[in-house]
Amino acid sequence: MAKGLKSLIRLNEWKVDENRRILSQKLADVAATEDAISALEEEVVLEQTTAEQAPQEAGLFYGVYANGVIVRREEYKAELEQKESHVLVAQDVLNKSYRELEKFKILRKEREKREQKERDKEEQGMLDELGLQSFQKSSD
After folding, report:
1. Alpha-carbon distance 97 to 93, whole Å?
2. pLDDT score of 63 more than 70
3. Maximal C-alpha separation, the chain
4. 54: alpha, beta or left, given left = phi > 0 and alpha = psi -120 to 50?
5. Which of 68, 83, 94, 136 has the CA that lies 20 to 30 A from 3?
6. CA 28 → CA 15, 34, 74, 119, distances in Å?
7. d(C-alpha 17, C-alpha 85), whole Å
8. Which residues of 60-83 are buried (b: 16+ CB within 10 A; e: fewer)?
9. Do 4 and 100 contact (CB within 8 A), yes or no?
10. Per-residue pLDDT reduced to its tens digit, 42-58
11. How far apart, in whole angstroms, are the C-alpha atoms of residue 28 and residue 30?
């Protein structure tokens, strides 16, 4: 059973590591979307500055651009919300797998304590036997 427990611990450690990688990727996806939102905001400022400098040319195109920005901003917002919900799910999965791993580690520690007690008991029995034999030899 000890080998089985070691295998279960290794398997669960692998699951925890895999879930950490998945969470890390999901967090990177959120960061990438946040970066895209920031880039869009910087682009809007640049376009506004350009429109202010050349109002005749920009007047024709800025309205269409602004509408496009509104649509893109809403798409990014929806995408960000979706990715953040995926992060929450990944965090939950990671927490569950970590708790499962900890159960097996606690079980292993309890088993090791029990086995140590058994070894100590056997050793004490052998020492008691040696003491009795020594006593009997000294009594004779």
Report:
1. 6
2. yes
3. 123
4. beta
5. 94
6. 20, 10, 20, 51
7. 21
8. eebeebeeebeeeeeebeebbeeb
9. no
10. 999 998 888 888 878 77
11. 5
